[in-house]
## 1
Amino acid sequence: MPYHFLFTEWFDRNLKFLRKHNPTLRADFEAFLRDFDADAHPMIPGTGGARKARMKAKARGKRGGYRVIYYFVTADQEVWLITIYDKVQQENLSAADTARVLKIIEAIQAAK
């Protein structure tokens, strides 16, 4: 069964910002979605089940590319893309970002 991708406002805003500075991001993101495997990425402690995926940047590969934070709802095959950031600009989620991710996931779970 194929995945159903849903985007938070936070994700959309960050993706739009990153696209302004990286013209190849659109192609990189399309490849990421095409090859996506929801169970292949590690969970982030303290987020209620969010996972962190590496997404390649054309000139830097996966290790120096982007990080996509998402939540997978197995029963519905829904993948909630919560946020995206450039690894060069931000190493990991801050404590405030982790708390924000947890609130978003709690809202998703409450709506189910």
Note: Strands lie at 4-7, 51-57, 61-73, 78-86.
## 2
Amino acid sequence: MRTTRWKTSLIALFTGVAILGCSESARTTEDSENIDVDGKTGADTLTTETGSTLELPPPDTTHQAEKRSKTIGWPEGQTPKAPAGFTVTKFAGDLKHPRRIYVAPNKDIFVVESDDKEKSANRITMFRDTNNDGKPDQREVFINNLNQPYGMLVLNNYFYVANTDGVMRYPYKEGQTKITGKGEKILSLPAGGYNHHWTRNLIASRDGSKIYVSVGSASNVGEYGMEEEKRRAAILEINPDGSGERIYASGLRNPVGMDWEPGTNTLWTAVNERDGLGDDLVPDYLTSVQEGGFYGWPYSYFGQNVDPRRKGERPELVEKSIVPDVPLGSHTSSLGLEFYNGDRFPSKYRNGAFVGQHGSWNRSEFAGYKVVFVPFQNGEPNKKYEDFLTGFIADASKNEVYGRPAGVAELPDGSLLVADDEGNTVWRVAAQ
């Protein structure tokens, strides 16, 4: 894991709050980078170089804005919009809240159909493209009767599923189209959580010796007491049989997407930050994950910026809170994460990160509702993120959207799949 040194002095600015200088944080960058904090040009920026400055607006604890989207579905023939040089096609439809996509080592594609408890299909559907034309010619219900599944993993002849209340594993042979064996619950987890924090993601270490499990918080800022937050707001590490559990990193309010940076053993995660401090606080973020690292929740955010609702609590944790790498905009609900390992997209996309932003609900105006791309150069996030897949918002004045992106996954042919859980579709983005 690489580390960065930041100074921990705080300076109040009339435009916001700044963190200046150097102490422990997520990384060091040689060149300054301006990263858009709220996803709009000219907004507050983060400059990440040695002697870095993070500017954020002051917290507003009276903030009560709400603007919930209404899904109207995609008109016939209409698709999301990608940059010039890309095509967008429907890979699969007639799904029920497709939330996460996993591509197995044998190239089979697994899609979780899952949602809030009362709406969840609780199944995983398998797709197979046998002639490599970018369209699945086989579709099977792979597992049924799950409990709000999200994370999936193939490892050591097992198929792992992270339900909201625990990790299951099933005997699995490469290429099988349906799980027939009895599953084994290898790890129990605290179920549910604050405002859709039911997702539990999975990823294996590079050598397959460990599995990492993400668990979101039970609350917004610990308002139900920290006893309710045990083993939450964290990434857990376990052995493949479920033993040896330990907290790998904590203070991560709702870590959902996880992926390994290409060519490294550095784990990254996309995190949903807290509500109730204003339209532009607190930014969701993409960050490298330090073993044993603490990322602030619920006591502070973006380093030592103290949440006024937890003022004076746990100063020793605030002191060591790590500043995340890349802010992704406040209330964007940044869920999916996929580093691009292929070579079919233009060279600027190689080794960069795609993030699926499900979209806001507690903000005066919509934020998110798109897939963004974070360029990486020499192993560092480079400059601000940019829009990659847009067009999900139909009419913001009427709160209408066609769909909402969530999970993202790269196919072996170098194209990108995007799960649109409100549009009940999986989209495929390919270079022309």
Note: The chain has one helix and 36 strands.
## 3
Amino acid sequence: MMVLVLGAGGQIGKSLMKRVPPGVKAVGLTHAALDLTDESALWSALESYSPEAVINVAAYTAVDRAETESAAAFAVNARAPELIAHWCRMRAVPFIHFGTDYVFDGTKNGAYTEADPVSPVNVYGRSKAEGEAAVIREGGAVLRVGWVHASTVRGFVPWVVKGLLAGGDLRVAGDQKGAPTAARTAAEIAWQVLSAVGPNRAAGGLYHAASSGVTTRFEAACFIRDCLTQEGLAVRGKLTEVKTKDIAFAAARPLNCVLATDRLHRVFGIEAGPWQTGLSQTVRRILSEISVR
């Protein structure tokens, strides 16, 4: 089966390309290779490659910048997935699209399920919610993830690791709840879902694909600090717990990003495992890359 991976240069995209299952040929396109805001180029690429399945992890993820660049956010996060999903439906090609926990306002007590209505609090969340809805209308599958981390790009985990080792004073929100999910975990779930669906069938449906367990941003940072200590490293930096409102974000953040994953397990028998496992592995990978340099 030939699978086209869009957004192959991002966290999950790189992990997808590293974990291609036997019997699958994956072609990965990065933003440099294909600008998803160019609808004509996107359609031509789909026609040219004529894949047997498509996985889209491309996204406009600059949450704060999206407040002033809404057109770009909606072009990548809403219109492009709609176009891809339409092409896939016309050709009976399975389509898996990655969604986000930021489609919720974060006010619910307890974990969000796939049945909960979306209510995003920022432009990024609204653009992703529109894209998710379009994909589902066209019969595609949406895998919602949150707090994704990897060693290879900028993000919360590399920021904490490098800041603590360099002696920084890191202010981390203690009122945001979620489950850190490794990019490689999200990639493995996508391949498992695609394998279960098979070629020439609609993947169809909405699934939460996060690691199990609940933590806060601050608690996750403390866990990272403990990982560094266990590796015998000198932690020179300091962690300070603050409220989200005390951090100068341009865009509002949902405080509860916990996703219930029961449906993913019930339909596909997939369990992502505890967030601690993936996070400790990412920390070790970051340390390995630092030592190599």
Note: The chain has nine helices and twelve strands.
## 4
Amino acid sequence: MGIKLLLGSDYHGNDRLIRQALDHLPQVDAYINCGDFCSKAGKPSCKATQGFHPTAQAEVAQLQSFLAAVDSLGKPWLFLPGNHDPAASVLEPLAGSWGRAITQSCCFEWLGLQVLAVPWTPPCGWSWTLTRSHLQELLTLYGQPPRPIDLLLSHAPPRGLLDEGGKWYHRRMPTLRPLVDHLQPRYYICGHMHWDGGKVERCGSTLVINTALHNMVLEIP
């Protein structure tokens, strides 16, 4: 039998998307959220002493409540932060019995699938910024995984794939495209680029899925 995953990203506190996700969860095997649940939490501020922008208290509480509700349904889940989300010090305590937030790049087995999760976003002046050092480290550490990658998870799409025509990625900006080209995962799941949300695109053997502003179901044979 296959695995049925619910995928979502870029809710930005939208009550309809949040309710829709919780309504769909009983019908699937697991849930992946690719970040930007919040809108202001990742905004830079010298007053962000609690790990998020001081105006974002309510949306951080909403994120905490949402992940607790997901966990209470007894479905495995993963949360990848986006550039609008709070710091690791806020996200790590949200781990539950069934899932956790990913705050460091890691490769692991999940539901029988080989997963590479990367919580970094190409630079846009907010939080969780991907650097060239991150990219080189990823290629060094995970360039030869123990088995082929089934799911590559991150907030933002790779250059040239569901990235709104590349208008936000300048020529020298690091993205995960080199990692995709090298590893050729079965699926690359992301969000970030709202205009391309809800779309899929194939790149060689990889199916790229942009879940921004959507809840989408992926059935893996």
Note: The chain has a mean pLDDT of 95.
